[in-house]
Amino acid sequence: MTETTLSSYVKEPLVFVQENFSSNDELFEQVAQRASDLGWVREDFLERIKKREATFPTGIQLLNFGVAIPHTDAECILEEFVAVITLQEPVAFKSMEDNSKQVEAQVVFVLGLNQPHAQLEMLQSLMKLIQNEEILSQVLLASNSEELMNVIEINNL
């Protein structure tokens, strides 16, 4: 079994750098459209990720950043991926800990995973990144997808 690392799932077509979205719905629509064009998701992916986010919010407030890790049911995913989106202006997500609170997310990781063990390992790898604000700020400052992917690879995530 190969090790599940973030860098093995982050693929350039689903890296959005310094984007502007008016809402998490718009963000989901862009990711879903691109993933769909690539043939990586079923057509119900968008509807399901929105529904899951509404039911189980994924916003995480860190000391200096807001992050969100939305994901959906494994059966929607045809080709595994992790989409990484960095935002010029934060997008509001409800807090994972308290859904009456908003988290202004500057970095969003959309998990497109269909193997249960991979999901756990991926979350551990992501938590390692999220808990290191120095690396997270490097991700946020990347000016293009190549730079962003390099930050993830260099840090063995």
TrEMBL record:
> Superkingdom of this entry's organism?
Bacteria
The chain positions of domain PTS EIIA type-2 read 8-155
**Pfam hit, one:** PTS_EIIA_2
Its keywords, alphabetically, are:
Sugar transport, Transport
SUPFAM superfamilies the record matches: Phoshotransferase/anion transport protein
* CDD domains cross-referenced by the UniProt entry: PTS_IIA_fru (cd00211)
Q: What is the name of the protein in this document?
A: PTS sugar transporter subunit IIA
Q: Which organism was this protein described from?
A: Enterococcus dongliensis
Higher taxonomy: Bacteria, Bacillati, Bacillota, Bacilli, Lactobacillales
